[in-house]
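Long-time lurker, first post. I've been practising inverse folding by hand and with some scripts of my own, and I keep getting stuck on stretches where the structure tokens seem ambiguous. Below is the full token string for one chain I'm working on. Before anyone asks, I'm not after the true native sequence, just a reasonable design that respects the backbone. If someone could post their per-position residues I'd love to compare against what I wrote down in my notebook.
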């Protein structure tokens, strides 16, 4: 399996799924162009041993990515709700105590459902902290965990630095 090529990883599952599309040198890259990329994404999110990287899982995961994109950018709720219809949370009692376990009608819906469920958790935690990078040429998303909630860039080292460099160039050009 190849390494994860994405510039931003480690975001909550819903946003990490959105971040399977990113810009490189002006062109959109898509990790989920095939099942090999799906395997990379599943592994990166600790789902590799639980779900198969097959065509059905890829199809459902792409449907979830589209639904999440529409929810984040257009406020569309029905597509996410459609994904959520393919699973549920079952209350459990184990030797460790009470718990919850996700259940799916079809395991191929698992990653898609988990990403949609994660989006609900982000909405209930801090919906105003679900952000899109402020750089014009970036399409990445992040969950702002900064203390004061003012993070603007997916990465200060990448997009934030490019924006600062652009402002500096514009100032020096005007002088």
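-- Answer (accepted) --
I ran through it position by position. Result:
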């Amino acid at each position: 399996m190849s390494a994860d090529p994405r510039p931003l990883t480690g975001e909550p599952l819903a946003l990490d799924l959105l971040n399977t599309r990113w810009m490189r040198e002006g062109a959109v890259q898509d990790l989920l162009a095939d099942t090999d990329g799906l395997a990379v994404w599943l592994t990166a999110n600790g789902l590799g041993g639980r779900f198969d990287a097959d065509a059905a899982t890829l199809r459902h995961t792409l449907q979830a990515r589209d639904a999440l994109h529409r929810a984040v950018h257009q406020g569309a709720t029905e597509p996410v709700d459609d994904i959520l219809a393919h699973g549920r949370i079952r209350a459990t009692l184990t030797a460790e105590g009470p718990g919850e376990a996700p259940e799916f009608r079809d395991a191929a819906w698992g990653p898609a459902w988990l990403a949609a469920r994660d989006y609900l958790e982000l909405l209930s935690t801090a919906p105003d902290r679900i952000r899109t990078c402020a750089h014009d040429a970036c399409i990445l998303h992040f969950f702002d965990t900064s203390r004061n909630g003012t993070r603007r860039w997916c990465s200060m080292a990448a997009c934030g630095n490019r924006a600062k460099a652009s402002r500096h160039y514009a100032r020096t050009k005007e002088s």
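A couple of notes from the structure itself: Strands lie at 21-24, 27-30, 87-94, 97-104, 130-132, 141-143. The radius of gyration is 18 Å. Happy to go over any region you disagree with.
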